[in-house]
Write a structure and sequence with these properties.
The protein folds into three domains: 71 residues, Integrase, N-terminal zinc-binding domain (Arc Repressor Mutant, subunit A); 82 residues, Alpha-Beta Plaits; 71 residues, Alpha-Beta Plaits. The strands form two sheets. A four-stranded antiparallel β-sheet has the order 3-1-2-8. Strands 5-6-4-7 form a four-stranded antiparallel β-sheet, with helices on both faces. The longest helix is centred in the first third of the chain and has 18 residues. By secondary structure, the chain is an alpha+beta fold. Helices cover 44% and strands 22% of the residues. Keywords: Cytoplasm, DNA-binding, Transcription, Transcription regulation.
Length: 239
């Protein structure tokens, strides 16, 4: 799991470097989730998950409130949730999740990003079966044993608990996100370095320098698209 944690860190660092783009994507996701259910995180678990993720990226409260108020106001803007799958250089696999109000715009943009950067889109299901949906939390200031004990006290089951780079990383089933979060809060832990619902590759590939440079351009091109919310891949970014 250690290498997977490196990839999660790399992804978060990339997002942290482009804050305005990240804020816009979170605003869209918060609006969609708030509109699909109640615009109140106390009664909308999906909204609570998104807000916890937003917190780890330091999304300003004003942006969050504006998105929720837009949902409360009965905005007629609708978004479709789409997933694209494809391949990059030398066996790399990529999943692209999008929220779009114009399907006819998004698909060509994603396809162009792949084709112009050494990749190609695959059919639905061609890549996703090699990934596992996973909830991931990063906690600092605790040992793995301490985290395991507090989760056991709350009767919360997780996949794995590891110590990586002075942090404890907890991997759990995606439907356990809220249970894990609440268990930590019961123990007085309310700050997370990472709180994500992600897709983790079952097996990772290592790319040579030239292929890695091309792959990074492909990932950047995909993440820069306004409609793209998340990009997952199976490339090991190392330490």
């Amino acid at each position: 799991m250690g290498r997977k944690w490196n990839n999660i860190k790399e992804k978060k660092a990339s997002k942290d470097a482009s804050t305005s783009n990240v804020y816009n994507k979170f605003a869209r996701e918060i609006y969609v989730v708030a509109k699909q259910g109640e615009p109140d995180p106390e009664s909308n678990q999906a909204l609570r998950v998104v807000l916890e993720r937003a917190k780890t990226y330091n999304v300003p409260r004003a942006i969050i409130d504006r998105a929720i108020d837009k949902a409360k106001g009965g905005s007629e803007e609708n978004f479709d949730e789409l997933r694209y799958e494809g391949f990059g250089p030398n066996g790399s696999m990529i999943i692209v999740d999008a929220l779009t109000n114009n399907v006819n715009r998004t698909a060509p943009e994603v396809r162009a990003a792949f084709s112009k950067n050494g990749g190609n889109m695959g059919v639905s299901g061609s890549v996703a079966y090699m990934f596992d949906a996973t909830a991931v939390f990063g906690i600092e200031g605790k040992s793995a044993d301490e985290v395991l004990e507090l989760l056991m006290e709350q009767d919360v089951e997780v996949r794995d608990i590891l110590e990586e780079d002075e942090a404890v990383i907890v991997y759990a089933e995606p439907d356990q996100f809220h249970a894990v979060q609440e268990a930590f809060k019961e123990a007085g832990i309310t700050e997370f370095s990472v709180a994500e619902l992600t897709m983790l590759a079952q097996n990772e590939v290592t790319l040579e320098e030239d292929s890695m440079a091309q792959f990074e351009k492909l990932i950047d091109a995909l993440e820069d698209l306004d409609d793209v919310q998340q990009v997952y891949h199976n490339v090991d970014f190392g330490e």
